[in-house]
Amino acid sequence: MKNLRYLLLVAAIPALVSCERFLEYPPQGAILAEDALKTPDDAQRLLNSCYDVLANIFDGSYQNLAELLSDNLDEPNGNDFQSVYNRSTNFFTPTTNGVYSDFYYAIYRCNSLLENFDLIEGLSDADRDRMEAEARFIRGVCHWHVAKLYAQPYGYSATNNHLGIVLREKAGNEPLARSTVEETYTFILEDLTFAFNNLPVSNDAYADKNAAAGMLAMIYFLMNDFNRTVQFSDVVIESGQYTMNDTIDRFPNIGTTALPNPETVFGIVSFANDVRTEDLTGNYNASGILPPNLTLSQELNQLFAQNPADQRNSWITADGTKYVLGRYQDKVVFNIPLVYLTELMLIRAEALGELNQDLGTAIEDINAIRERAFGDDINDLPSGATAAEVIAAAREEYRKETVSEGKWMEQLKRRGAKGENIIIRGAPWNCPGMALQFPNAEFTSALFTGNPEGGCN
């Protein structure tokens, strides 16, 4: 018997462009999959809509929440942002609930496609394999980012049997219990490994083999699995397909031409009539006499300012007692890289330092990034730098390069899980509020256990 699924199809338009959000499971007025999914074009449109939701989430919505849990920002404006910053979210916090729901909208659409290939006439084996790999790539990426915000990290418990997130392998809204973090990461790695093994080498603006390799490198890095971090970073870096951006600006205005910078492996594409950057520009950019909602901490400003030769100091402007990040000021249309060469070089360098192997490559990676920021032969690591010096330098450059991208929080948690004494704005890395609270809708089932609230401040 055919599996009847509910779908909301959108027009066939370029990658990562807008459509209306999937509202419910299923939405009112939706149509049956056996009526909607008939042709390969129908399937591609549904897959495009999965990317579309992903683009909506990474317009800054996810990044802002993750950044607020780190020590990169000062106390923000806005009640929801303050709740995240103060580690006091609850199941009624609208902003965190919206981001959570959006990830599962994308997952639902991916599952709807994965379950209904048998309805599509004329779909070649090659296209089916590609679409399945892309859908599983998106599903894995979404589950992983939910886990980073709403669960304690990998390594929080000795066997990772602490609560993770709800894993949705099928389209539906039935109540489910949270899986353990071990189960969560196993599921995510299965999806991303399948994607790596089945995605094409080149796939336009969509996910390809290198995108999956980059994601796997970052996931294994958060697991403190340094051998696999190096293995999958090497796949991308040594492919020769990407080159470092020649300036410190990874977010240049692109006008009407939606071309990524040369080091982007996978990212969110904006167009002049479809801008995917609103939550970054809207919350970091100064406007009139008021400082923006999100400003940098004094401690982070001091890190940048300790070396006047660092061109990245130009990103920061003092506004009274506030330090304003200018990476997005006066910009309208720009792309947002999610997997890119600079980050992969820095996590490879730190991983090699942790392994105390091939330090020469690690030093080269770090110095390439430092020379772009400081100038040739200024502030370079010496060729005889120790493993400890490599690790420290990689971490410092990582924090600077990824400011506002929501990546530093997960590195602090990773290091805490590894055994370091990590204190984030006066609280330990693993205090209860460092995992956001789930939306109220998840608590409708006795199967579901939420996160403990409070206990950080």
List the helices and strands and how they pair.
Blueprint: E1 6-7, E2 31-32, H1 33-36, H2 40-57, H3 61-68, H4 79-85, H5 94-114, H6 125-150, H7 181-198, H8 209-222, H9 226-237, E3 264-268, H10 278-284, H11 298-305, E4 316-319, E5 322-325, E6 336-340, H12 341-355, H13 359-374, H14 387-401, H15 408-417, E7 423-424, E8 427-428
Antiparallel strand pairs: 1-2, 3-6, 4-5, 7-8
Helix pairs in contact: 2-5, 2-6, 5-6, 6-7, 7-8, 8-9, 9-12, 12-13, 12-14, 13-14
Q: Can you tag this structure with a few keywords?
A:
single chain, about 450 residues, mainly alpha, Serine Threonine Protein Phosphatase 5, Tetratricopeptide repeat, two-stranded antiparallel sheet, 15 helices, about 45% helix, disordered N terminus
